[in-house]
Amino acid sequence: MTNVGIFGANGRMGKKLIEAGIESDVVNISAAFVRSSSSLIGADIGELIGQAKYGVSLISESEESVSDSNVWIDFTLPEALENHINWCVNNKCNLVIGVTGLSEQQKVLIEKAAEKIAIVYATNFSTGVNLMNSLLKTAAQVMGAQSDIEIVESHHRHKKDAPSGTAITMGEYIADGLGVNLADVAEYDRNNIVGERNQGSIGFASLRAGDIVGEHTALFVDIGERLEITHKATDRLTFAKGAIRAAAWVSKKQKGLFDMQDVLGF
Ligand SMILES: NC(=O)C1=CN([C@@H]2O[C@H](COP(=O)(O)OP(=O)(O)OC[C@H]3O[C@@H](n4cnc5c(N)ncnc54)[C@H](OP(=O)(O)O)[C@@H]3O)[C@@H](O)[C@H]2O)C=CC1
Ligand SMILES: O=C(O)C1=N[C@H](C(=O)O)C[C@H](O)C1
């Protein structure tokens, strides 16, 4: 069994990670951090998610001598990531990262840390999205030259970053299939653009509404036909189960940077 610690245990994903960890027969949840200002410090993690007492209490992030956890999972926010990476490097723990909306500088921090510990970083931990990414590369190779490509994503009203990390990763797979750099062809904002569509661009559109868990569609639109590839997540538990699987997988690695396709084996 892999002992796993959770950063941001009281977040939407934090609670789902606890649920998936308690259900899992390959990991134990052995520690769970909340902010040092949190009124929840000391609460049991089972009770936090409305289940029976589990025997692990929420502890403050500032606590130093906590852990028999070999792997930590971070689904917090970009501003918390650097501290969490440093904590894992200093304590020689491996790390699973699901935070999106990262800057280039924060991605470099992940790469540097992966020279010392093993990290799985993915913008989406569902099996379906990771399969879809491979299908998108093929679609781009077959239809990309003659079709207009657009990516549309929809999420809940609380989401802070746009476009979603998943949408950007989808764009990267499509750009790879086309043999171009996403940065050269992405159109994230068409406000005030007058004129016809830029040929060869990949457009992005983001919707934010209600409680949508996460929906992504890539459209390949030619004259006379249109291919749409869609993934819909209906429960955050799917991401949490993927991250728990990644935690068990990465516990056996020494160092290096991996993604969810590595974990799934394709
Ligand atoms: N890769 C994937 O498969 C998925 C990725 N995500 C990503 O995960 C992230 C979290 O999403 P979600 O759970 O909805 O967000 P929430 O806002 O519900 O949770 C964020 C958590 O981070 C904590 N946090 C925020 N800032 C800090 C800080 N400075 N220091 C310490 N802790 C902090 C919050 O603590 P507090 O409660 O005290 O505010 C909270 O527990 C997002 O980036 C999202 O895009 C989401 C789903 C799937
Ligand atoms: O914030 C979310 O909720 C989600 N974020 C991830 C992203 O930005 O792609 C993954 C998933 O779509 C849910």
Automatic annotation (TrEMBL):
Keywords: Amino-acid biosynthesis, Cytoplasm, Diaminopimelate biosynthesis, Lysine biosynthesis, NAD, NADP, Oxidoreductase. Pfam families: DapB_C (PF05173), DapB_N (PF01113). Residues 3-125 form the Dihydrodipicolinate reductase N-terminal domain. It catalyses: (S)-2,3,4,5-tetrahydrodipicolinate + NAD(+) + H2O = (2S,4S)-4-hydroxy-2,3,4,5-tetrahydrodipicolinate + NADH + H(+); (S)-2,3,4,5-tetrahydrodipicolinate + NADP(+) + H2O = (2S,4S)-4-hydroxy-2,3,4,5-tetrahydrodipicolinate + NADPH + H(+). It comes from the Bacteria. Residues 128-264 form the Dihydrodipicolinate reductase C-terminal domain. The active site is at H155 (proton donor/acceptor), K159 (proton donor). It is an enzyme of class 1 (oxidoreductase). GO terms for biological process: diaminopimelate biosynthetic process; lysine biosynthetic process via diaminopimelate. HAMAP family: DapB (MF_00102). PANTHER family: 4-HYDROXY-TETRAHYDRODIPICOLINATE REDUCTASE 1, CHLOROPLASTIC-RELATED, DIHYDRODIPICOLINATE REDUCTASE. Belongs to the DapB family. This is 4-hydroxy-tetrahydrodipicolinate reductase. It comes from Psychrosphaera haliotis. The gene is dapB.
